[in-house]
Structure formats: C-alpha cells, structure tokens
Amino acid sequence: xxxxxxxxxxxxxxxxxxxxxxxxxxxxxxxxxxxxxxxxxxxxxxxxxxxxxxxxxxxxxxxxxxxxxxxxxxxxxxxxxxxxxxxxxxxxxxxxxxxxxxxxxxxxxxxxxxxxxxxxxxxxxxxxxxxxxxxxxxxxxxxxxxxxxxxxxxxxxxxxxxxxxxxxxxxxxxxxxxxxxxxxxxxxxxxxxxxxxxxxxxxxxxxxxxxxxxxxxxxxxxxxxxxxxxxxxxxxxxxxxxxxxxxxxxxxxxxxxxxxxxxxxxxxxxxxxxxxxxxxxxxxxxxxxxxxxxxxxxxxxxxxxxxxxxxxxxxxxxxxxxxxxxxxxxxxxxxxxxxxxxxxxxxxxxxxxxxxxxxxxxxxxxxxxxxxxxxxxxxxxxxxxxxxxxxxxxxxxxxxxxxxxxxxxxxxxxxxxxxxxxxxxxxxxxxxxxxxxxxxxxxxxxxxxxxxxxxxxxxxxxxxxxxxxxxxxxxxxxxxxxxxxxxxxxxxxxxxxxxxxxxxxxx
Length: 507
Fold this sequence. Notes:
This is Glycosyltransferase 2-like domain-containing protein. The protein is of the alpha/beta class. It is 48% helix and 12% strand.
C-alpha cells in the first residue's frame, strides 16, 4: 500500500519530465529542420521548363471588394497566359465594372495585350464549383489558383513559383503569405501572429519529410494542369460531403491531401472515386447535385481526360518559402476575423480527421509523410494532453515545489522571449501585443468549439456565400429526388469577356 502511494506521488513529476523532454526535443528538431530547408533554385533561362506564358490564373470571387482591381493589376504585371475570373451570375456586372477600371486597363496595356481576361459565372456561390468552372475553361499547363484578395507584389514572383516545377514529380507549389494593409488593429495583430508562427513550422515540416504543417495556402497555389483537369479529381472535389453538407470551404486542404496522398487512396469499385461509405462523409438523401451549379461544364466526362482511368503518380509538394515568393493578402481588420478563425480551425480539424482516418488513413499517411502524420496526431490529442500537463505541474508542486517553480518560470520566460522576438520582427504590432497573447492561447477553447460545431459549413466572412448556401439547403430539402434543377440554367451559357486592351463581349 505504501509502495502504491509512493508511485502515485511521483507520477506527476515523471509526467512533467516526459513533457519537458518532449518539448526540448521538439524545439531542437524544429530548429534543425528549419536550418536544413533549402528553397528551389532559380533556373537559368536556357534550362527553364515552364514560362510565365504557360500559366493560367483562376480567381473565384464572391462579394468582390474594390481592392480586387489592385489584385488584378499585380497579376497582369506578370504577363500570364490568361486570367479567368469566376463569379456568380448575380455579381457578373459588378465584376465587369471592376475589370473595366481604368487602372486595370492601363495594367493590361502595359502587359502588351498578352494576357486574356475572361469572366465566367456559376449560379450559386461555391468556391469549389467556381474553381472547377475556371479549371475546365483554362488552357495553361500550369494553373495558379488565386484568391481575389491576393497581391503579387514582387515583379518576379511567378518565376520563383515556377522554379519547383523543374522537378518532374512536383505537382503542387506553395508560398509564404503575409499581410498587406496600411492600418493595424488587434485583429490583424492576431492574424500576423498566426501566420508568422506558421512560416517557421512550414520550413520545418517540409525539410523533415516533404510534407507541410497543415496545408498549402489557398491564397495562392500553383498546380500542374493534368492534376486539376483529372475528371476523378473534379468529381471528388465537388462531391466532398461532411455530415450531410457538401463542402464549400476547405478547398486548399482537399487539394493538398489529393496531391500528397492520392496514390495511396482506395477507390470505390462502383464509381471509381474515394469511398464515401462512412456516415460522416455521406450526403443528405435529397442533397442538390453540384453539376446543377456548373454552367455547361461536365465534370463527369471532361474533355481533358478519361474518367475511367487516372494515373496514380506520387506527386510531391514544392514549398518556395522565400521573400521573393511571398504573396500578400488582406486581413479582416474587425470582428469578422473571428469568423475567419472559426472556419480555419474547423476546416483544420476536418482535414486532420480525413487524413488520419479516411483519406488515406494514418498508416498510409505515415509511409509518405511521417513527420506530418505525427504533428497531426499531436494536434488531435491537444485537448487531452493539456489537462495532463496541468495535472503534472500541480502534482510536482506538492513533491518538488522548487523544481516546479523553476520549470514554470523557464516556460514563462521562453514565451516572453518569443513575444519580444515577434515585436522586433513586426514593430508596428507592439501596441496590441495582448492580441498576440490571446491568439496564442485560443486553442484552450477553439478545439472544443470545433468539435461541437464540426457539422457546420459556413464561410462566415462572405455574406453572399452563406446566404446562398442556406437557400440551396432549403431547396434541396423541399425538392423531389428526381427534380432536374438544370432546367433553370440559362440556354445561352455564360457571358464571357476577353479583355486585352479591347473588350469583346461574346455569348
């Protein structure tokens, strides 16, 4: 009995020692991996496999902000093959007005008329449908999926992002994302803190096993056209269900998962796409079909590929984490950022669940990216491990109060040092340092909140997206399973513009 009590007494200090050792090893491994990271070399003109004229840029847009004109000007400066803007039918004329802006026209003229701008539409706001509409209409060998608030500031950014494609097995290229704004608010400080911490961890994860700490950012990602034009990809991408809801958000995590692990995913023998047999992944019985939203684009039988046979190339990521490849983006300067955070965290939890349990599963994932797998498992266990850490520290205070106080002081000092380093790197954030502290500890509630709202599908920062999603849900709940929604699609198709100095309207 005495021996049992003695063991229980020392359980807390032993646990604390294990956690402390793990933290020290993790910090050492992260520093070592970041030092090992090497960006992709800028190729010589004679050896380049791809030119900027091989790139089609696809921009899905909803609730388009006036700053979109600045986004377009930055893209035009790189002189890609084409820019395809995919809006909703109700917003078509507003987007046209932004494209016809004098500043954009001037940038198009400066590009020498080499870049065609086209505007396509879908019936309902859904980023995945919009991307597929643009992908299917594109002509480039390399496709750049770009948000409507992405700003390509470096004049040679596109060249740097094309560099990884010198290696034939690189299928997806990502880059660092930074804030672009003339003002600073507590919300923006929180966002900068999150993105700043992610930059270092991206280098560490990529150097460790070629994976990534979460997913390639959807603000700007470049992919080989053959991946995105694959009918199996398009079908799976636009028929991705979670708890009965067809997914709108999480497009970047889906694409990252597909590129990294498609070669290990099992097909359903009936429809040749990833099995959706688990209840979490099934649609509602009367869920609206995604093809009703795509104007005259058949994702089942795309002209670019054979839907019956897709190659299982084991693609790799190419993370170009340099200042020259850095893409700017706007950050919500107000309480809307809280909604954005909710979407990010919820999407992150779904992504981890999909990777570890469904596509491709923890064992298959480990074979490709063991470091990424371990970090995902740790992320899943955070709500469980945190109470254990607190118990270990509390129990150690009873047995070795001096040791516990030393460890607690060391942890606090290390954290303060990290905040000080952050303020030196981003001096304009100093006034709102407390926002960085709050977002650092947001996981204390965010993990539980995400589990409680795991079945919620909402964009939360684009009003029209969530409004149309609710309308589609109402329609799908009230319609007959045999109702053909496609009867409402306009007979003449989309209004398409070609803007290269002169506007040409075609129906």
